[in-house]
Specification:
alpha/beta, 8 strands, 12 helices
């Protein structure tokens, strides 16, 4: 069976390209299985992950042919939900580089990323109710955190699809790039992350993911851990030495 994810590995970054061009990169069970395997790798060896799609499309949604045959027990298994939760919980940041369609399950995979960038040709949203289902793989709780409750309700209840410009204005993506520049822009973000202390980056992601009632105690404990690290001392010493030479 051909891989649904094409993986490129480097010391600081892994690029996972959704690669089912005949279905506009629809997310099927094989892709979910490969996402789980990739997450296991990145849990053991943390690196920044870039998610993108082949052929000018991120993902047109979950595979409708598979969804049509699933029943109540399949829904309760949370096939896509658990994979996307695992992506969200990865130790290092996840960057979603979005072009063309990012719909349904494709949008929900994008919502699981820490940083989303797109192109003017992006079309993102959740049309699930038109297919007789709900967006049950993260949209109903992640989208309000990203764009606010009112806008999330409009998107999910009407099935509205946002353009790239609208997604930028709503804060669903943080920047837009021409399609030929999108991957380079994602790598520039990953390279900037790689220049920081990995432990500080992981702790920052932990704080960002935490429930509101965990703050500020969580940050203080994470900071206490970093205050004792040799890397903190090394980086601050280097900063002071550079400043003294100016």
């Amino acid at each position: 069976m051909a891989a649904s994810l094409r993986i490129e590995r480097a010391p600081d970054v892994v690029v996972a390209t959704l690669d089912r061009p005949d279905t506009r990169n629809a997310i099927d069970q094989a892709m979910i299985d490969q996402l789980h395997a990739l997450c296991a790798e990145l849990e053991a060896e943390p690196r920044t992950l870039i998610l993108t799609g082949e052929g000018g499309v991120f993902a047109s949604g979950a595979d409708i042919a598979e969804l049509r045959e699933r029943g109540a027990d399949d829904a309760r298994r949370g096939i896509n939900t658990h994979a996307f939760q695992r992506v969200r919980a990865l130790p290092m940041p996840v960057v979603a580089a979005l072009d063309g369609y990012a719909l349904g399950g494709g949008a929900e995979l994008a919502y699981a990323a820490d940083i989303r960038i797109g192109t003017p040709g992006l079309r993102i949203g959740n049309p699930e109710t038109g297919l007789g289902i709900i967006a049950a793989a993260g949209a109903t709780w992640r989208l309000p955190e990203i764009v606010g409750a009112a806008r999330a309700a409009e998107l999910l209840l009407t099935g509205r699809i946002l353009t790239g410009d609208e997604a930028l204005a709503w804060g669903l993506v943080s920047s837009l790039h021409e399609p030929g520049d999108l991957r380079a822009a994602a790598h520039a973000i990953a390279e900037r992350i790689a220049r920081a202390d990995p432990a500080a980056t992981r702790h920052t992601k932990t704080a960002l993911r935490a429930e509101s009632d965990a703050h500020p105690e969580l940050e203080l404990e994470l900071q206490a851990d970093l205050f004792e690290s040799p890397e903190k001392h090394r980086r601050m010493t280097a900063f002071l030495e550079r400043r003294s030479r100016r």
